[in-house]
């Protein structure tokens, strides 16, 4: 027989004796449960059970167990549990926290932070940043030890202000190498040098695809009448440029002969080359022979040696590669197939240039100041720094942007810097040594596009050397020389002109050609203001070799961004707006800038970032106005006057043309809206902004009053106005610009003048940025910006957050 003990939950519940057998208890043994009763007493016990089963008299329910019996049951359970625990303890099974001394956990409990009263200074002091500690340690080691002589405070001030004194090693800047890489040339030299050394940024490598015949550039297209054309886009753009050119000639009362082009073309069609001696060729060049042993010994040629190979139809065993294209790492599949090939070419070119400087092979004694574009690609910057520190072994490096370097090179503190390079144009406004981020504009055209357009126009004029192919290096150099010698912006020189040039092909005799030109010498450079003449694609070439730089935390693209670039890509420039929309945009832009973070602006989409999907090719004069306008929104328009007064043109794509200052001045004044030309623009924008703020406060008060009127005493919910009520309030408080009043305020100020700064006579315009980098590297303040090799290996690009003048 088996039975179960009642649980604690059953102690207070009535027992149904009819449905379950009654347990057998030993009443004399404190009510303990007797599981095995004696067999002799079984009949008596059964009799007792039957008696207990009988219902009580009077028909009542089952009899409840007394409280004393329940208490005995509880005590019996406790004794049984104690007996079991004692038996387990004897066998060694149990939990003994007090005996082994082990705590429940080794993790210390951290109390919660009091949100009302807490403070941290993490990374808020210079001594918490390893780079600053290391730089201070280096400075203290290099500092001269005191000799007991106390110096006057005046002497210390003089030493701090004297940036031109020689340092301990001799001439200041002798141990600093300034490097300015470009799409076509690399400028390099010591910071103490007066001029840089210039090397072509090109390398020649064996051509493993020599069976592929390259196409002819520019591609010739002849119509049904046998007239040479270059597509509808080029022809329509040329017609527009010609119309503008003739309007300018009429404005300045210059004579225009309608038959000049035909006359020049007829002369060119009858010209034949003249064979002359090489000694009479001022542009004579020595080429490496196709049978030279150097072609078998060397694996690559760099710089001028690469350009001296005899490229042509009969020599295709080698090809040229430019590792930097449009200010970015060249990722064209026609040139490179691996990312390491690009970096290897850059290493070879820089190493070749350093060897020409004659500074030895140990670069660990030198620092390097790297001049980077205003609109930089982070992937390119970080790879260049890694090459300089890890591969070449420079001790330290520093960064400076091209526009800031240009202001140092010319000695101005604030300017609108226009850098027209070989393949790209950048515009940035610099205020007191800092670039205004939202003023940066990147344009996808440069001096090379002018060369191509000029070549097309010459071919349409029956150019005597009609087999010119810009894919051949010697023909490209010829086109570059013709552009630099004959192209001009001086409309007084536009007439039928007779010119000559010399052409020397590898393993051929020198030939002299004569040709005539008319307005082609001015129409080609005018393409900077009519970019359709260049036929630039609106889509950026794919860049498959290097991954796009992304933020380490958010995973989003984090290349530089500019509000001016974003609006121009969306065709929302200021120069095309009506007067009312223009003023409204200025007010909204100023209001948004005050509410946001002036140091960091965010794009609305990733397409607005530089180097993503779209290429920008708007006229140069309009881009200048857009850049200065955005700078005025960020600062104030009174300071923007100084930017119009200091427009600085650097680079070799524009500043080498005669009279470019006059033409650029005229173009900016023509396209600048009248409100942007007013000297009282800041007062006008401030007044209109205050008027709009007043109307906003009136609108809020009307909404509050209407809600209070509709609210009852018993209502506790928020009152919401209907769309009709809100529309009525908006109509009452609509902000309308009074143009007559705006005109009256604008006329109170004088017209803001436009002034184009000319480069220093002793410096070529393409050398100004390098010179500015050398000047900055010699300043004592530059000592705070050097980043060591150890710091770069530890923190990588995070170093630039603390050690750069700009927001990297």
TrEMBL record:
Recorded superkingdom: Eukaryota
Bias (Polar residues) ranges: 36-48
Biased composition (Acidic residues): 153-169
PANTHER family attached to this UniProt entry: ACTIN
Gene3D superfamilies given in the database record: 3.30.420.40, 3.30.420.580, Actin, Chain A, domain 4
SMART domains per the UniProt record, alphabetical: ACTIN (SM00268)
Pfam family, one: Actin
Region (Disordered): 1-75, 130-174
Compositional bias of kind Basic and acidic residues: 64-73
Entry protein name: Actin-related protein 8
Family (UniProt): Belongs to the actin family.
